[in-house]
Design goal:
It is built from eleven helices and four strands, in the order ααβααβααβαβαααα. The protein has 243 residues and is α+β, with helices and mostly antiparallel strands. Strands 1-2-4-3 form a four-stranded antiparallel sheet, with helices on both faces. α2 crosses α6 (100-123). It comes from Planococcus koreensis. Residues 7-160 form the Nitroreductase domain.
Length: 243
C-alpha cells in the first residue's frame, strides 16, 4: 500500500555494489515526471553522474564521499530555467527568471520531482538519500558538471540496493503541524516536550549510533548560526537576483 510505503521511509547511506542501468533509472524518472509542476514549466533537470572521477570529486565537494562513490546511482537534482530560455528563443522571445517567485517555483518543482523519484525507487526496493551537502560547494559542483546560467543544484539524490536497514525516525505529531483556520503556536509548549521524549527514546533504542539528544536541542544548535552564506552570491552568478 502506498501510504505504508511512505511511512516506512528511512535514509540509506550504505549500498550494495550494484549500479542502476539507464533503463532502470529512466523508468523511475519517467514516473517522477508526473509530479505536479507550476504552470507546466517543468523547471528542473537531473545530472546523472556516472564518471568515477567526477563521483569522487563530488564526494569531496559535498562531504559525502561514501555515498557518492558507493551508491547505485548518483543524481544532482537541479533547478533549471536554461531549457525554458531555449523554449522562448524558439518562439523569437526571451524570459525573465531572476525574480524571487521564479526561484520558489523552480525549487518547488525540483522538490516534487525528487520526492516522486524517491517514492518510485523505494517502491522497487531501492533505498535513497537526499544529499544537501551539494550546497556546501554549489559553484564548484556547478563547474564540475557544466551547469550553465539558470541552472543550479538544489540537492543530490543517491539510489541503490540497501546494504543496511535503518529504523524509521519518528516525525512530529500531526497536531504539531496541522492548524485549523488559525495558526496556533501556544500548543508548542506541550507538544514539543512530548515529542522530545519520543525522539530521545528512539535514539536510545535504535540498533546503531545510539545517543542522548532531543529534537529541540538539535534544532536549537543547528539553527544557531548561518549556513552556507555564499549561496546568495552563487545564485546571483546563475542569474537569480531576487527582484
Amino acid at each position: 500500500m502506498v501510504i505504508e510505503l511512505m511511512k516506512s521511509h528511512a535514509s540509506v547511506r550504505d549500498y550494495k555494489d550494484k549500479q542502476l542501468s539507464r533503463e532502470e533509472l529512466s523508468e523511475l524518472i519517467e514516473a517522477a515526471q508526473h509530479a505536479a509542476t507550476s504552470h507546466f514549466v517543468q523547471a528542473y533537470s537531473i545530472v546523472w553522474v556516472t564518471d568515477r572521477n567526477k563521483r569522487k570529486k563530488l564526494g569531496e565537494l559535498s562531504k559525502n564521499a561514501k555515498q557518492m562513490e558507493g551508491a547505485g546511482a548518483v543524481l544532482l537534482m537541479c533547478a533549471d530555467y536554461n531549457r525554458l530560455k531555449h523554449a522562448a528563443e524558439l518562439q523569437g522571445g526571451s524570459i525573465v527568471f531572476d525574480q524571487a517567485e521564479n526561484l520558489i517555483v523552480a525549487v518547488t518543482d525540483v522538490g516534487l520531482l525528487a520526492q516522486n523519484l524517491a517514492l518510485a525507487a523505494e517502491s522497487k526496493g531501492y533505498g535513497i538519500c537526499y544529499i544537501g551537502g551539494v550546497r556546501n560547494n554549489m559553484q564548484a559542483i556547478s563547474d564540475l558538471v557544466g551547469l550553465p546560467e539558470g541552472v543550479f543544484p538544489v540537492y543530490g539524490l543517491t539510489i541503490g540496493v540497501p546494504n543496511e536497514a535503518n529504523e524509521v525516525k519518528p516525525r512530529l505529531p500531526v497536531e504539531a503541524i496541522l492548524h485549523e483556520n488559525d495558526y496556533d503556536e501556544e500548543k508548542y509548549s506541550s507538544l514539543l516536550p512530548a515529542y522530545d521524549a519520543t525522539v530521545q527514546n528512539y535514539y536510545e533504542a535504535r540498533s546503531t549510533n545510539q545517543k542522548q539528544a532531543t529534537w529541540t536541542q538539535q534544532m536549537a544548535q543547528f539553527l544557531s548560526t548561518p549556513k552556507r552564506p555564499d549561496i546568495k552570491e552563487v545564485l546571483a552568478k546563475k542569474g537569480y537576483h531576487f527582484k
